[in-house]
Amino acid sequence: DVKVTQSSRYLVKRTGEKVFLECVQDMDHENMFWYRQDPGLGLRLIYFSYDVKMKEKGDIPEGYSVSREKKERFSLILESASTNQTSMYLCASTSPGTSGSHEQYFGPGTRLTVT
Amino acid sequence: DAKTTQPTSMDCAEGRAANLPCNHSTISGNEYVYWYRQIHSQGPQYIIHGLKNNETNEMASLIITEDRKSSTLILPHATLRDTAVYYCIVRVELGTYKYIFGTGTRLKVLA
Questions:
Q1: DSSP 3-state assignment of B29?
Q2: Is residue A76 within 8 Å of residue A34, measured between CB atoms?
Q3: What residue of B is the nearest CA neighbor of A33?
Q4: Does the beta-carbon distance from B46 to A105 stay under 8 Å?
Q5: Which of A37, A45, B12, B94 could be joined to A88 by an S-S link, Cβ 3.0–4.6 Å?
Q6: What is residue A57's predicted lDDT score, i.e. its pLDDT?
Q7: Helix (H, G, I), strand (E, B), or coil: what is residue A3?
Q8: What is the mean pLDDT of chain A?
Q9: Is A97's pLDDT higher than 60?
Q10: Phi/psi of residue B59, each to 5°?
């Protein structure tokens, strides 16, 4: 079974702190994604990566950056956390190619609270 | 990007079929429709996907209209464990794949 793990289930940080959210997948997937999920807004894409050291902005990249130094690991960075970044953060991975379902496998999520 | 619209919530009696609709009127010809569900406090879980033809697997059936502007997810015999938020998603190809989530339908299966 594909496994996507996230470093923390719950995290509390102070305004202005630098925050790192880590995501690791064990299926050698090329594509990885970071979403945030807020009530009434569904899942919104922050950043995604289709290869090591490659990254693409999603729909709401402002205030975030990412790092993909190794294929299995995709990190989301909040350079200076703000209260409006309090949210559930979900990581996902998928394999590219021309065949297969390309389904996304999600981690359990990190609930971040910025005070 | 193609967007999806879904009803906010639905109820279904246990043992009955649950039919969850989704509109994706701006979908392009090569964009797939995916369905996921999310049970409270977990990450979304893949259910099924399709392009033009109807699809069925062990979890559900997916009916896509001929013009591809809408689709319906069918859970043939809903159980209490099917209570979840169901997301209809369009997969957009931009060199790689990007998944456009809607706001989902909260399905409550009633005993």
A1: coil
A2: yes
A3: B98
A4: yes
A5: A37
A6: 93
A7: coil
A8: 91
A9: no
A10: -95, -40
Q: Which of the four pLDDT bands, split at 50, 70 and 90, describes residue A42?
A: confident
Q: Which residue type occupies B78?
A: A
- Partnered with residue B40 across adjacent β-strands are none
Which pairing describes strands A110-114 and A10-13: parallel, antiparallel, or unpaired? parallel
β-partners of residue B74 are: B19, B61
- Between chain A and chain B, how many beta carbons pairs sit less than 8 Å apart? 59
C-alpha angle A38-B73-A96 in degrees, rounded to nearest 5: 70
Ordered DSSP codes for A23-35: EEESS--SEEEEE
Q: What CA–CA distance (Å, rounded) separates A50 from A68?
A: 10
The rounded distance, in Å, linking the Cα atoms of A8 and A12 is 10
φ, ψ of residue A72 in degrees (nearest 5): -85, -10
For residue B10, the model assigns a pLDDT of 97
Q: How far apart are CA A4 and CA A20, in angstroms?
A: 17
Q: Would strands A56-57 and A42-49 be described as parallel, antiparallel, or unpaired?
A: antiparallel
Letter for the amino acid at B75? L
Q: Which residues of A touch B100 (CB under 8 A)?
A: 45
Phi, psi torsion values for A85, nearest 5 degrees: -100, 5
Average pLDDT over residues A62-90: 97
Per-residue pLDDT tens for B25-79?
988 888 899 999 999 878 999 999 999 989 999 999 999 999 999 999 999 999 9
Structure tokens at A99: 């065949």
